[in-house]
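During the second half of the funding period, the structural biology subgroup turned its attention to how the target accommodates small molecules. The most pressing case was WQD, which had performed well in the primary screen but for which no bound structure existed. We therefore specified the complex as follows and requested a full 3D prediction, including the ligand pose.
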Amino acid sequence: MHVLVTGGAGYIGSHTAVTLIERGHRVTIADNFDNSSPVVVDRIERITGTRPTIAAVDLLNKEALTNVFAADTPDAVIHFAGLKAVGESVAQPLRYYATNIGTTLNLVDVMREHNVHRLVFSSSATVYGDEQQPPYSEDGGHLNATNPYGQTKVMIERILADLAHAEPDWSIGILRYFNPVGAHESGLIGEDPHGIPNNLTPYILQVAVGRLNELGIFGNDYPTADGTGERDYIHVVDLAEGHVAALEKLATTTGAHAWNLGTGTPTSVLDVVAAFEKAIGKPIPYSIKPRRAGDLPQSWADTTRAEQELGWKATRDITAMARDGWRWQSENPDGYAGA
Ligand code: WQD
């Protein structure tokens, strides 16, 4: 298939583009490179031997997006593009609602105009909010995120469900990621956050390469085995493979369907640190800090539905995530900026 990957120069998008090409699909990446680097395109070509077509557009520019579809209409779309920093969304809610919802409305409008009805949407486990208890299942009822970023995902899921209900031609896969970690085994692509990382493992890796002094662990007094927060960390290549499995499923279904992409296994912050110390071969200095506002004690996936309906299951463990993440960071200490 010809697949348009919005945000395809980003962390998860680039890994998904590699898997799509390796599975024989043709990929066009639409990206404004606001939070990603054009170097990624060269790296995708080095890994796969194929250079994806690039549409350097902002999805808020509906005319530019229409031209992309008019020039080379895709068979399906995987939609990653959007703002994703939880803390930033609390400070800038209007920018997050306007961008994440506005880009999605433009995209589905242009898809309709070009008779493209197969869409995979990048959602997040954050939609489960703090009202449900883990393991989270897709039919667990009311979704309610605890920050504007997460609320954009809740609202877009609602928009897509209503669209699929109104127009039966649509086949939409909503993928709720847990905590993506690691990098492609080549070490050529990986997570490269701009500024100080919000997430745990890029922060650990930047301490390891000397860009940051020490890790702050946000609380060790949670009701968990070792007192630190537990999350469902999933290898980014497992996540990419989950997207391709969902895309292929959409060829045989209609309507909107949500699937968790996780491992079903919670891991604590201290256990993540230990796994990364083993991969890196040296200790990661850390100090215990107060809890971070909005953090849950535990979050992990019920993976039953993705296993049964997509025939997909994550296979890589935290050791592989640490090993592959360290290879990327040690070979690219300054991320893509150093390329
Ligand atoms: C993981 C654990 C922290 C950083 C977020 C978003 C979610 C999704 C994934 C987009 C927690 C602890 C972290 C640090 C720490 N993103 N931690 N020190 O919060 O589970 O999920 O990223 O979809 O929407 O909410 O991930 O990596 O920030 O935190 O102790 O410097 O590591 O308390 O227990 P989180 P995270």
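Two results from this model are relevant to the next phase. The chain has a mean pLDDT of 97. The pocket of WQD is lined by residues 84, 86, 124, 126, 177, 179, 198-200, 203, 216-218, 229, 231, 269, 292, 295 (CB under 6 Å).
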